[in-house]
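Supplementary Note 2. Why include the ligand at all?

Several targets in our set were suspected to adopt different conformations when bound, so apo predictions alone were not considered sufficient. For every target with a known small-molecule partner we therefore ran a joint prediction. The input for fructose -6-phosphate is given below.
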Amino acid sequence: MAEVVILPDAPSAGALVADEIVRLIRDRPHAVLGLATGSTPLPVYEALRSRLHGVDVSRVRGFALDEYVGIDPAHPQSYRSVITREVVEPLGLVPALIRTPDGRLEGIQHAGDQYEDAIEAAGGIDLQLLGIGTDGHIGFNEPGSSFASRTRVKTLTGQTRADNARFFASVDEVPVHCITQGLGTILRARHLVLLAFGEGKADAVAGAVEGPVTASLPGSAIQLHPHVTVVVDEAAASRLHYAEYYRDVWRNKPEWQGL
Ligand code: F6R
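The joint prediction is reproduced in token form.
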């Protein structure tokens, strides 16, 4: 079962997850982080800024979940730019050790396999941060994605493009295609940490944690993983049937267990 942690707000969620990442890096200075973009992980990156002072991050490696296809890597909304701006620069990570899938059209047919090879060569991902889309996607694995899928090109749903239009001048500027780690790729990470905030994510969270395991709600793939932590605020937790039980588990969690 996923461990579900219900917290009052996004900053406390960010602090909890940032503490876990710092613990991981202290333990394993060459840790491999799976990095999500979008607005959900920002409180984690924000909380990491102060916590990483004095921590050696020179060997930390990172792999972003996804990238838009056909976008100029220098575009401010390419995930390459977002990861550089929100993660690499403020946290002082080594740029050459942090990768995003290559969304450039030239060579796109091989970009997925190359990304998988790079993740494998790094020894796999230790901790994978995840957000969830209102349609239940994780990474950009839209409904119908295979649970065995690897990094590959996908077509974004109209709903995802509309959700992400807030980062662009209009919905027409949101790319139609993306390249994303597959559900199989994500399931190979050693620890999944899925965050969600706000009422708009409540149905997707309930479906992912408590609904049937189905490709129609890709986030439900987390139920197949042995080590998952779901960190949500009250609003995102509002449709969870077993919310009281999750609170009880968290209150009584033995300290030695860690996150
Ligand atoms: C981003 C990603 C997506 C987002 C999801 C939620 O790398 O893989 O799955 O996590 O679309 O987006 P936000 O966080 O903006 O609500």
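DSSP finds eight helices and ten strands in the chain. The pocket of fructose -6-phosphate is lined by residues 36-40, 65-66, 131-133, 137-140 (CB under 6 Å). Comparable summaries for the other entries are listed in the accompanying table.
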